[in-house]
Amino acid sequence: DTEWTDILRKHGILPQQVKITQNDIYDSAVEKAQEEESRRLENLDLDELDELEDEEDDRILEFYRQQRLAEMQAHLDKEKFGELMHISEPDYKREVTGASKDTWIVVHLFRDSIPECKLMNRILSELAQQYRATKFVKIVSVECIHNYPDANLPTLLVYGKGDMQGQLVRLDRFGGMRTKRKDIEKYLLDMGAIDSSLRRPLPNENASDEESDDDSARPVYFDLSKSLRK
């Protein structure tokens, strides 16, 4: 039967078959829905139209409210840290190497006897409160790398994507004990270890923290990756 109808169409006896696509069906359904909505609105008086407008406004407001709540929840899910954690050698693989697959981690190698290390710990404690999506940890230097020289302290190791992404040795580039929180903040921002959109202000934050950075010096790097692979 199909073959015979094809012959009739070929000779113009029957009209050509019209192919209907999914887009045609969708467009037709949308057009029909629009026509029905138009007819419904035509039959409404002014009071009914005002009421409908209020309902639409409420619907739009509710949509944006739910969207905002979802965004806030997503931020809260990321901001799960908030303090400078003290870890020891047995914790390193779990808290740093393994965890860095899912989050950025800043590791401070320190000794309590070194003033610059105390300064760095204070700075990192404040940054940890501001950037709660990043994990900040500190570990005594010789527990992390046996026989690590005090002359290289403080040392920052920045982990992300499951591996070390950068290292900062000493505070010479920032002026030693004149180093400010904004200096380390900019360094970590440039590394991608902290997200400026998630920054929380500190209660004691002041104008001195907003001074411009001096980028004339370059950081000193050492290849520590081999010593840290455990």
UniProtKB/TrEMBL annotation:
It comes from the Eukaryota. This is Phosducin. The gene is PLP2_2.
